[in-house]
Design brief:
The complex is a heterodimer.
Chain A: H1 2-31, H2 37-41, H3 43-62, H4 70-91, H5 98-124, H6 129-147, E1 151-155, E2 158-162, E3 176-180, H7 194-212, H8 215-225, H9 227-232, H10 237-260, H11 273-285, H12 291-307, H13 315-330, H14 333-349
Chain B: H1 2-31, H2 38-54, H3 60-83, H4 91-113, E1 118-119, E2 129-131, E3 136-138, H5 140-162, H6 164-174, H7 176-181, H8 186-211, E4 214-215, H9 221-234, H10 239-259, H11 265-279
Antiparallel strand pairs in B: 1-4, 2-3
Classes of the chains: A mainly alpha, B mainly alpha.
């Protein structure tokens, strides 16, 4: 038991240091002007997608339920975060500093997404397998559609909400439209920073890694391996499934807020089925249940289209081909046996060490 | 009268969903995988028929057969190259590969046919039918779509339940290993399933573009998702279920659009799906699987 605990700690430490070292290297490179402008624009999205991938991994990899609507929670967080930030700017007599607004936006975005996660979790977690997956997809689409018909404005009399049009808000003198249906949240002040994203990743890792290695996390894994067996030894499957689901939604909401505040406008269409799938690709490519893998896959795949710019028109085609080839190679039994043999050979050539858990 | 007219266009749209859903449900039932590239095969079918009529000047029926032929070959090719090597891999790995194939098809279409939408001329040469002194107008495309759907469902049901190939399909769907022991070629059966599903996708593509005449590389994506929903709605793996789910989804979508809200029609469709699944967790006609401990 002791050695297992140490192994967890060493493994987690490796994950944290990977993120910290990567951040420091990026900072140094930026200070020396070694990073292209296009790549600098990708920094905040990369951190957002890392948080999205790690949080989805909690549902898909650790809990073992396929979610196809993760972008829905990102969307809820993005819009509640953007509205929070804009309202703080408009209403407060002295506008709070940008970092505080960003932090508040991410907290509110996370909380609202968490509440949605709980409400959606009640019906979703009654189902299983593909049926659960399709309902998460359905909720993602519903959230997108509903946001498209909401209009929110702010004037001297306070907040106004309408489901008709921006004109129906009847804003007074100096009033401002914050959320304008299909046009999305408009007039956002861009306050997201790479450092904020870095801090959010660390918080996410802290929450997820501690959850996985806690009593609750072991219960979640037990539910994943065998629901009936877990239930028969007195584990409340509903409680632990919900715990994983809500945590995942909350983190996605915070990431959504960070994402929204990186742009001046953000539309609900951005957070559609394709975005959910994109994040799922990160999780599966980084190997399910492997948090470090999610981080690396999210980073590489977000930068990849940028690096493929040399291919210009065919770059998304190349991206698709790379994706297919990676999946085929990774799951090829012949190659897997070859890899196993090399690993075994290396192990026997060295003096006997503690056996690893790499499968 | 307006209601009847909405109902008919709902059934027509539902017929298209049903034809697409059949492809999803058959592949799922036999290969136990979600073929996410199915929606993009629809799009390829649409473009093939478009090229056949516009560029080569072929008659409509020939263009449909051409589209079916190309899509059948494409379906078998995709299965052989991308899915067959993953037969023993976890289902999520296959799902991601299918997404890769979907990206590939969309982007290839983008390069070949450019992102500009093409306006598709309906392949149906008949005039609209006027009933009740012209109060109710049913377009030729609507009639052909509904008739095509019924023919497809009946013949597919016959193939699956009455022929030797169908028996092999049912056996593979029940238990792959035992089917193999009984001398059934599992790989061949799966290939045939993909071929049938892709040919149906081509038909659906042509009918979809005839009813909604805008053809783009992303044309197949949303109908693909909806049809997948329809398949789950009816109980995935069940052929009558796919038919029922498709028709219901189409009717709900059109009626929701007409009477409740144009913007929220998709939300209504998905909300009904959620409610149905809560009452019947394995879809309308899905089999309830009991787990033995």
């Amino acid at each position: 038991m002791e050695s297992l605990k140490t192994r967890y700690n060493v493994d987690n430490l490796l994950t944290y240091s990977l993120v910290i070292v990567a951040y420091i290297i990026m900072r140094i490179l930026i200070a020396n002007g070694k990073i292209s402008f296009a790549l600098q624009g990708q920094l905040v999205p990369i951190t957002v997608y890392i948080v999205m991938a790690v949080s989805l991994n909690l549902t898909v990899g650790v809990l073992g339920e396929l979610s196809l609507g993760h972008a829905g929670f990102m969307s809820v967080g993005a819009f509640s975060g953007a509205i929070t930030s804009t309202l703080l700017e408009l209403s407060a007599t002295s506008t709070p500093p940008a970092w505080l607004r960003l932090a508040l936006a991410m907290i509110i975005g996370g909380i609202v997404a968490g509440i949605f996660g709980f409400l959606i979790g009640i019906p979703v977690l009654r189902l299983e397998g593909d049926y659960l997956a399709i309902v998460t997809l359905a909720f993602g689409e519903i959230i997108k559609n509903v946001i498209n018909v909401i209009y929110i404005g702010y004037d001297a009399n306070g907040i106004r909400i309408s489901t008709e049009s921006a004109n129906a808000l009847n804003l007074g003198e100096g009033g401002k439209v914050i959320l304008s249906g299909p046009m999305g949240a408009i007039g956002i002040t861009k306050i997201s920073t790479f450092t904020a994203g870095f801090i959010l990743i660390l918080i996410t890792l802290f929450i997820v890694l501690n959850l996985i290695n806690s009593r609750a996390g072991r219960a979640i894994k037990a539910v994943k391996d065998d629901k009936i067996a877990a239930e028969s030894v007195g584990i409340s499957t509903w409680k632990y499934r919900m715990m994983a689901f809500v945590t995942s939604a909350t983190l996605a909401g915070a990431a959504g807020a960070l994402y929204a505040l990186n742009y001046s406008t953000v539309v609900a269409r951005k957070f559609d089925f394709n975005t959910s799938i994109l994040v799922l690709v990160f999780v599966v490519l980084g190997r399910m249940g492997n948090i470090r893998g999610s981080i690396i896959a999210a980073t590489v795949l977000t930068v990849l289209p940028e690096l493929l710019r040399a291919f210009n028109e065919v770059r998304m085609l190349v991206y698709a081909v790379i994706l297919i080839i990676v999946m085929l190679v990774r799951n090829n039994t012949t190659l897997q046996h070859l890899y196993q043999r090399i690993v075994t050979k290396l192990k026997y050539d060295r003096p006997p060490a503690e056996e690893g858990d790499e499968a | 009268m307006a209601f009847l007219s909405y109902l008919i266009s709902g059934i027509s749209l539902g017929s298209i969903y049903a034809i697409i859903a059949l492809g999803y449900t058959m592949v799922y039932g036999i290969a136990k995988m979600l073929n996410f590239a199915h929606g993009d095969v629809i799009m390829v079918g649409g473009y093939m028929s478009f090229m056949a009529t516009t560029n080569f000047g072929w008659p409509p029926l020939l263009s449909v057969l051409f589209a079916m032929g190309v899509c059948t070959v494409l379906g078998i090719l995709i299965e052989q190259l991308a899915y067959k090597p993953l037969r023993s891999a976890p289902s999520l790995a296959v799902l991601i590969t299918a997404i890769g194939v979907s990206y590939f098809l969309q982007n290839a279409a983008l390069l070949i046919w450019s992102p500009n939408p093409k306006s598709f001329t309906s392949i149906v040469p008949f005039n609209s039918i006027r009933l009740f002194d012209g109060k109710l107008i049913i377009s030729g495309t609507t009639v052909v779509t509904i008739v095509a759907c019924i023919i497809i469902i009946v013949s597919l049901n016959t193939i699956v339940n009455k022929t030797k190939v169908g028996k092999a399909m049912r056996a593979v769907s029940e238990d792959k290993d035992v089917a193999q022991l009984m001398g059934i070629s599992v790989n061949k059966t799966i290939s045939i399933t993909f071929a049938i599903g892709s040919a149906l996708a081509a038909v659906a593509g042509v009918l979809l573009c005839s009813a909604y005449p805008i053809l783009m590389p992303t044309t197949g994506a949303m109908p693909g998702i909806k049809a997948f929903t329809a398949a789950v709605f009816g109980g995935i793996g069940s052929i009558p279920g796919a038919f029922l789910g498709g028709i219901l989804l189409g009717v709900i979508e059109i009626l929701g659009k007409a009477y409740i809200s144009t913007h929220l029609s998709d939300a209504i469709v998905f909300a009904v799906l959620i409610i149905i699944l809560l009452v019947k967790p394995t879809g309308l006609l899905g089999k309830k699987v009991l787990v033995k401990v």
